[in-house]
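User: Run a structure prediction on this.
Assistant: Running it now.
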Amino acid sequence: MASDLAQISTRSARTRIVIAVAIVVVFSIGWMSVRREFGSMIAEMTPPTDPAASQLLDSARSLAPGDPMTYWLASGIERQSFSPESAKRSMNLMEEAVKLSPYDYRWWIELGRASEQAGNAEQAEAAFQHAVDLAPSYTIPRWQVGNFYIRKGDVDKAKPELKLATVNNYKYRLQVFGLAWDYFDHDPQKVEELASDGPDVLVALTMFYAQRGQPADALRIWNKLSEEDKAKFPQISSVVVQGLYDKRAFPQALEFSRQLNIDADAQPEAVSNPGFERIVNSAEHTYFGWQFPKQGKVDVNWDGAVKHSGSKSLRLNFKGFTAQELFTASQLVVVKPSKKYRLTFWARTENLRSAGPPQVDVTNAVDDRLIVSSQPMPQGTNDWQQITVEFTTPENCNAISIRTTRVFCGDGCPLLGSLWYDDFELTAQ
């Protein structure tokens, strides 16, 4: 019995020792893993340009001596010296990194960059190409090797790589287009040679041209999309039309706005909703319809009781408006430059009184310069009368702004009474 207990005790002691050793081993392995991860994290988060990069590299190496990330950081630090010797050391460090992790395309890209800086173009090309082989469907390797060939002046090799870089990544699409735009002296044909197929790419190219102030090219590319595809990108197309409008590319902005049904009825060289038959909500977004900026002591309403023709007119009620500048009832109309036009409209007044009565201005929407003003609206109470304004658009004019202003009469000059508008018409001469 005693001997049996002794044997059990001995076995229990041995078991406890084995368990203790196992725990120590597990914790040791865990600690080593944590050390390595922590060292790798330090290297990854440290920019080579950081003033303390060398000290942080030492810490990372002590924690993770065989981690390729530490070699990447060391290589990047060497590249900051811009000397032939440091460039070669940088390349050698990345050679070690790819030995440690030969299937990670990132290190092959970095080896390519370091080799190119060290003047070893042959190794650089091989490294970039190997990165592509490791990750053939990834954008970044294609972008890097395409840029390498551009820097070498080998455009024929660069084109297919850069074109593939535009397939899946919006950011790199725009970068490829920008690179081609600058490299090929703003040649749209060359840019489009690098655009892969697909509606996403066409939309990105539309955005690119709009941002570059190329409205005709933006519209041309947009119209390559089917109506079904256009409907899939309402937010993008809205950004494009706003961009074209802001750049005062009004003819192209009008076409986009029509296609988006923002200004579906607007036409070039014509006043939209000329007889105010369609009531416009003040919150309704429009680029080429009637707009009524809010101004104190001026009410704007549709009037179904008083009209020259149709079923409605527009009524402006002035209730002691005293500001020097009046700006309301405005509309942008696309026109052609250096062309004669006649603008006619019908006006009616009731108890209109002011030393600075309302008038209709026609301005060049491209530079906001006044082209012509109508005669002032008749004072007092007057039945409908037609007012005519004739003008020639300036050479730089692709749109005009028709808007109600007032004759200048200084500060504190009240404007009272009512004014009706109806039946606007713009005629090319």
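Confidence is low (pLDDT under 50) at residues 15-31.
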